[in-house]
Amino acid sequence: MAKFEEGLLYSESHEYIRVEGEYGYIGISDYAQHALGNVVYVDMPDVDDDVTAGEEFGAVESVKAASDLFSPVSGTVVEVNEALEDTPELLNEDAFANWIIKVQLSDKAELDNLMDAKAYQAFCEKE
Amino acid sequence: MNNRLYGNLIFELSKEGRKGYSLPKNNFGSYEIPASMMRNEEAALPECDELTVVRHYTNLSNNNFGVDTGFYPLGSCTMKYNPKINEEMAALPQFQGLHPEQPANTTKGALALVSLLEKSLCELTGLAHFTFKPYAGAHGELTGLMTIDNYHRSRGDMQRKKVIVPDSAHGTNPASAAVCGLEIVEVKSLADGTVDFEDLKRLVAEEGPNIAAMMMTNPNTLGLFETRIPEIAKLIHDCGGLMYYDGANLNPMLGACRPGDMGFDVMHINLHKTFSTPHGGGGPGSGPVGVREGLQEFFPTVSPYHGNFAVMMRAYAYILSLGKEHVKEVGPLAVLNANYIKESLKDVYELPIDTVCCHEFVFDGLKDKSTGVTTMDVAKRLLDYGYHAPTIYFPLLFHESLMVEPTENESKETLDGFIAVMRKIAEEAKTDPELVKTAPHNTPIGRVDDVLAAKQVIVNYRQLKAKA
Amino acid sequence: MTYKYFPHTEDELQAMLEKAGVKSLDGLYAQIPESIRFRGDYKLPSEMSEQEVRDCFAKLGSQNEQLTCFAGFGVYDHYTPSVIPSLLARSEFLTSYTPYQAEISQGTLHYIFEYQSMMAELTGMDISNASMYDGTTAAAEAAMMAVAAGKKQGKVLVSEGINPRTRAVLDTYALHKGIELVTIPMKDGATDLSALTSQLSSLEGVAGVMVQQPNVYGIVEDFTGFAETCHEHKALFIIDSVAADLAVLKTPGEWGADIAVGDGQSLGIPMLFGGPYVGYMCCTEKLIRKMPGRIVGMTKDNREQRAFVLTLQAREQHIRRQKATSNICSNQSLMALFVTVYLSLMGKQGMKEAAQLSYAGAHYLCEQLLKTGKFRLAYDKPFFNEFFVKYDGDTDALYKRFIDAGFLGGVKYEDGILFAVTEKRTKEEIDNLVKIAAL
Predict the structure, then answer these.
(1) A22 pLDDT more than 90
(2) What fold characterizes domain C83-342?
(3) How far is C411 from chain A (nearest CA, A)?
(4) pTM
(5) B361-364, strands of its sheet edge to edge
């Protein structure tokens, strides 16, 4: 069973964001991780790259699938989770503990377009 | 199959100082390659004597399965028999040494062959001209789309960039469109897998002036003939688009129906499917593109010469062998073989669309889903019994797709043998599901760890040594 | 209805039709509208026996002229060891399909792994894919790969020294894909680094820079400083080379290339009027996920044995669909086996010796032609086994004289002739060619 962690915001494309002040940690949900299966590679942007809400910023690959990552918010990448370069399976172990990028938010109002854990769970159940 | 010497790479058989070649003497005097031109580090190529090389690759071949080994019902790939005479014709010395830049008056025989093959393909498809430049099916698809794009550009119709594709289409269709700078719009399929004509009408109404083409296989990916094809073609032509025929499923149409008569303007043919040239472990193929009169001027330059000429020689030998008498029997016999298997197995395998099919059909896994045995398991268990597996998990319309294409060359005994084994596996799934789930057991290797392969990424000997 | 490729007897046909639930073969097509059924006879010749097929091909073959080849231009007349056709004819290789079922395709997967290893060695690059169609399409794929890797950059600079056959294919792909190709001019027969530097500074969004080694004139260029200049401007450096030459020439890897492409035909593959050949594509480790085409990787099976399997498939068309780096699926697998066996036989020593022979032959021919006083080298630059000369006389007439004497006397290009020599050309053949040239 997939976990839906409280306190995070979720997008319909199955990314989450954990907001801490001006910054947000973006990753994929546990539901998405389950759907993908064994993650073998995470394609991440570079630090200082800009991301835009709803636009692609990378991809997650399993053996037989590849899923683009869409940023839930706009901003600038300030950190990428380098541990995923060598151990992408961390996403399978704990998708919430292992964020993919840390972004400095440029427009906090965008967060209003995202779902809380309960709404996201309901969204996933419908899918 | 032979497992001996299995583990060795040719690099591991190498010994410094051995050689497997002989070269003429240097009678030119000393012309030393200047050091400034030369590479610093030597290429670490293996050093082997001739017999070691011959044994190594012979042993490797024993770990392979081809059409000559056994029944190969790989859906959508048309694994028909590759006649031996074709191989011999393609190896004729009078063609081997022709340089492609040789003046035309010195290559008359080769050029005649190209034009004779073109004429034959025109007759078989109802189209007017072919280009042989494309090297493979996907390359043909791209060439066809470029031809269409060139046509619209020539008319100043620059906005026509959308290509309609059924949602059941091969994955190459969207990829080819993207390489051609075109955009795919999907038309829905009905429950029986054919194009939803109402949805197509809606798309045409919305996108009419932007539609470059509609791309279809017919029969479609489920092996079903699109009976509304004349109406579909009219609809697309009326909005200014062209009809593209993906020739992947042409085989059942030989003797039954020609793409040109169905209303298609552009098509590619996989000579390595319908015209019996060998698949070679994944190429070389040949993907000639045919067009209606007037479109030939829009053929793009996707390769420098006449494409994979030796593959074309094989296809022509095949057409000559069959002649007009037997070419037309290809389709009906292929269709008969497919229907025979389908009807003989549909009580134990789930047949989502129960109708007369063309050259192939799709099961949605075992009928009894309670055993937990998947399509993958059935496929792997087939290997134990000496059959190649059907195409699995394609089309994506069903969860447990198992796509079977027997071709016209297979005898009733072969089909009966396959049917018996498929039934036996269905039985095993009930009585001993573990046996099926852990299959294959009798092959040179067992199931492979693809996750490890994708994670560790060892794709050559140098990396293998470094990571050892 | 029985025919040598159709095993159905009359009784079996009836039994099978019954099982299929139709009365006749025609009934299998009942769903097809009559208006589009094909009912007539195809206008094709009647069936032929093997003997007749053979005669027909023999007749066609006799209309080709067998010339002693001094032509190159990307396609070279190297020797094919007998072992190769014999091994390639093994039907377990020949009649198999793409190795999707790894358990019964280790033969194919294994040799592709070896092929990838050998191509990486030859090019001096980290990674090779399982092959491309040919050199020209490999170059086009490299241009697309550079653009895909460079994100929002849509230009590729292409040296004037690239073979025009390759350039034509590049132009085709670029037109449709929306890539802008800009030509880097040559100076004295070699790509002009200072022109490239200023182009890179003035043009926005250059994703890649492509050069050819040896270039279209056969000249071995000096690419010192090229990779650094490209990388300063975040462009990938792409080198297109004749595979066999790399056994001795400074490699794309040593020049600092990010992508190496070219044709493998020079590894003993017959010229065969244009194909099949095999394209190769290699890149740095960093770019592996942008690489088009199939890749075979090593892994283990559930019996703890070493095994090979298609890997990194998430890059490919059947998964990525319109987002795939390329639409390539089948490549030239059997031709990859061809070059793998060739390189296994030749080994590092044989490749070097063959290269030295080609080099010696070409330089001998060049010297002899210059001695006639009727030829001059267009550029005073080092060459390998192909060179570009101008003839003081009627080039067309000379070319015809060559053919009448049974020689394919090079390839006419611009206002001169490109001659190529391989290890197959004997001193006697060269001397005879020179005699005609001296007339």
Answers:
(1) yes
(2) Aspartate Aminotransferase; domain 2 (3.40.640)
(3) 47
(4) 0.95
(5) B361-364, B401-404, B391-392
